[in-house]
Amino acid sequence: MSRHFITIEDLAYKDLATIYAGACSPFDDETLKGQGVALIFERPSLRTRASSSSAVQELGGYVTFFSDEEIGLDTRESAHDVARTLAQMYAICALRVRDHRVFEKMRVATNDEMSLINLLSDTAHPTQAVADVLTIAEHFTRGDVDQLSGLKVSYVGDATNVARSLSVALLRLGAHVTVCAPEGYQLAHGGGEDPFAIASGSLLLSDSPEDAVRDADVVYTDAWVSMGFEAETQRRRLDLASFQVNESLMKKAKPGTVVLHCLPAHRGEEITDAVIDGESSLVWRQVFHRRSAMLGVLRWIKKEDHD
């Protein structure tokens, strides 16, 4: 049975630990020798496509890219038939999809014979969360993710799929997470990546950006208008205007607080130039660790004994 990386919540702690360790440790570039990875993108991508492609090639494999127009999941062709087709030629399929339910359809259709990686869905963004954990650990604990217990991380803005996976990943490491968002944009219970189901760490919901950043070690934000919500642009800008991560807000944080953003950034909306380009920004190390995260996930998937 193949391994899948679909949500952070799905994985046992030992598997997450293996991914974190494999992300930054020396590797043998024969891990994927002669094996193909299919990349399916229903939504646009820069960092995810670049990091996925480079990681596969560094491990000796090859990639084939399929756009939404070429495949048309559940429109041109059923997700079940797409999965059955790709499983004849590829060991792994990594997908950026609109509907998280596609993963279950493809898993069932192939009897778990082809590994699936979630490169972003409407529910979760687990590879981004791994990259975020690696970035935070590199800065605060010399790369030791197990030492992040007690760290305070505040997410400010629209609580997206990124916020859900980030929260789950950090809570499982014992961190204290505050999600600060206005009514209608806050985390909700349930779903395939549920921070409220995690027993470790602590989760606090807030609607005050000033309170959220006051004691935070990390301040994280994401775009207010995510893919698929373009029709709501004007309303979202109004509703989230007071949740901008700017110089004034960061002055309320303690010295040494760092800033993260998963990109793409809408500069002047959720974050200002002075903050994202400032000394406290770790945004470009996040980009670097998107590749690290994919290396870790791919190495874990192909671990020979699956123990």
Give a written overview of the molecule.
The protein is an alpha/beta fold and about 300 residues long. It has two domains: about 15-125 and about 290-300, 3-Layer(aba) Sandwich (Rossmann fold); about 125-285, Rossmann fold. About 35% of the residues lie in helices and about 15% in strands. It contains twelve helices and nine strands. It has helices at about 15-25, 45-60, 70, 80-85, 100-110, 125-140, 160-170, 210-215, 235-240, 245-250, 275, 285-300; strands at about 35-40, 60-65, 90-95, 115-120, 150-155, 175-180, 200-205, 220, 260. It has a five-stranded parallel sheet. Helix 7 links the parallel strand 5 (about 150-155) and strand 6. Helix 2 (about 45-60) crosses helix 12 and helix 4 (about 80-85) crosses helix 5 (about 100-110). It is globular. The model has no long low-confidence stretch (mean pLDDT about 95).
Summarize the structure.
With 307 residues, the chain is α/β, with parallel strands linked by helices.
Write the layout of secondary structure elements.
Elements: H1 13-24, E1 36-41, H2 47-58, E2 62-67, H3 68-71, H4 79-87, E3 92-96, H5 101-109, E4 115-118, H6 126-140, E5 152-156, H7 161-172, E6 176-180, E7 202-206, H8 209-214, E8 218-221, H9 233-239, H10 247-250, E9 258-261, H11 273-276, H12 283-301
Parallel strand pairs: 1-2, 1-3, 3-4, 5-6, 5-8, 6-7, 8-9
Helix pairs in contact: 1-12, 2-12, 4-5, 6-7, 6-12
CATH topology of the largest domain: Rossmann fold
Q: What is the 3D form? A: globular
**Helix and strand string, N-terminal first?**
HEHEHHEHEHEHEEHEHHEHH
Strand order of the largest sheet: 7-6-5-8-9
Q: What is the assembly state of the chains in this entry?
A: single chain
In the CATH scheme, the class of the largest domain would be: Alpha Beta
The overall pLDDT, averaged over residues, is 96
H/I helix tally: 12
Beta-strand percentage range:
5-15%
Briefly note the structural class of the backbone: alpha/beta
CATH superfamily of the largest domain: Aspartate/ornithine carbamoyltransferase
Spans where pLDDT lies below 50 across 5 or more residues: none
Number of strands: 9
- Helicity level: 25-40%
CATH architecture title of the largest domain: 3-Layer(aba) Sandwich
**Span of the ends, CA to CA:** 12 Å
Radius of gyration: 19 Å
Q: How many structural domains are formed by the residues? A: 2
Main sheet summary: 5 strands, parallel
